[in-house]
Inverse folding.
């Protein structure tokens, strides 16, 4: 362990909108990065203030991060980041290592609705993405980021000089589950699809040669021990949708950023398939073509098989939307 580290996601970094970026970092959940804080770098930066509040940062200038440096100023006891697409919420402040001036920062106002992931942060600065690997919720990180690990868009947006590097203070406010992690539930699956899972949790759906259900079918495949979903919740999920007749995958979010489902998005499918289910669960829902909500997941009108991993419940947006 290192030393004591589909839609636009607006994270408050000035006018920059962070989105998923193909080719971002990947890492195994049981293999944390080995980079540690560089003593010369860490001794040049003083950070004061409570976790979750805007930090008071003093940089002994000029300082330079010649390589990635990660120190855990506070070690959180929450969920660990083990996947590039695992949802998380981070507050961050960036400073010039050369001059000490603040470049840009999020609001540090406790807003938990700004959900991103490692890959979306890495699209702005590879060093940020690398620092988040294996970090735990509740941690405050001090990170030195070489100029080469900052995206051109971010460097230009904050006027980072070519001979400068970045000091980052990052508070990991919330980390969602990377996949459903509940206990197996026995179901009488006669005539219904079965689900197999890859090591990373990605489901494979096997549709039988059987008559399609004429009404909505819901089965809990894995039962999580988290909070139960209510009607007004926005649920953070990874899901796969398969067409019953063609067996083709209509849509999957695995390998991409997670999405949020609400009753507005799914209607009866949400009410009957997700309300009452718990965080950490995996649910299979067969949605007949005759159901008015059958086109919700992907725009198709056929009978669909949805396998949904419930990763967590989103906080209400600070804007009220």
């Amino acid at each position: 362990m290192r030393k004591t580290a589909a839609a636009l996601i607006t994270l408050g970094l000035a006018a920059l909108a962070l989105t998923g970026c193909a080719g971002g970092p990947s890492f195994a959940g049981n293999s944390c990065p080995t980079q540690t804080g560089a003593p010369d770098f860490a001794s040049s930066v003083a950070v004061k203030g409570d976790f979750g509040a805007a930090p008071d940062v003093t940089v002994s200038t000029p300082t330079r991060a010649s390589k990635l440096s990660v120190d855990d100023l506070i070690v959180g006891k929450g969920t660990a980041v083990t996947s590039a697409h695992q949802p998380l919420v981070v507050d961050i402040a960036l400073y010039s290592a050369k001059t000490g001036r603040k470049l840009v920062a999020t609001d540090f106002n406790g807003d938990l609705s700004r959900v991103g992931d490692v890959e979306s942060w890495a699209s702005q600065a590879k060093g940020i993405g690398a620092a988040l690997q294996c970090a735990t919720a509740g941690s405050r990180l001090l990170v030195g980021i070489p100029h080469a690990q900052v995206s051109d868009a971010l460097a230009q947006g904050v006027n980072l000089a070519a001979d400068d590097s970045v000091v980052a203070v990052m508070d990991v406010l919330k980390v969602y589950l990377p996949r459903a992690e509940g206990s197996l539930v026995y179901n009488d699956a006669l005539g219904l699809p079965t689900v197999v899972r890859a090591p990373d949790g990605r489901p494979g759906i096997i549709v039988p040669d059987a008559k399609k259900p004429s009404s909505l079918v819901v089965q809990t495949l894995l039962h999580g021990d988290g909070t139960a979903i209510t009607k007004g919740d926005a649920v953070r999920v990874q899901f796969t949708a398969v067409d019953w007749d063609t067996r083709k995958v209509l849509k999957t979010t695995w390998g991409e950023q997670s999405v949020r489902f609400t009753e507005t998005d799914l209607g009866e499918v949400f009410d009957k398939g997700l309300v009452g289910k718990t965080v950490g669960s995996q649910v299979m829902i067969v949605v007949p073509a005759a159901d008015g909500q059958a086109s919700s997941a992907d725009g198709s009108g056929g009978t669909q098989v949805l396998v949904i991993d419930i990763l967590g419940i989103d906080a209400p947006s600070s804007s009220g939307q």
Notes: The chain is about 10% helix and 30% strand. The domain at 183-313 is CATH 3.10.50.40 (Chitinase A; domain 3).
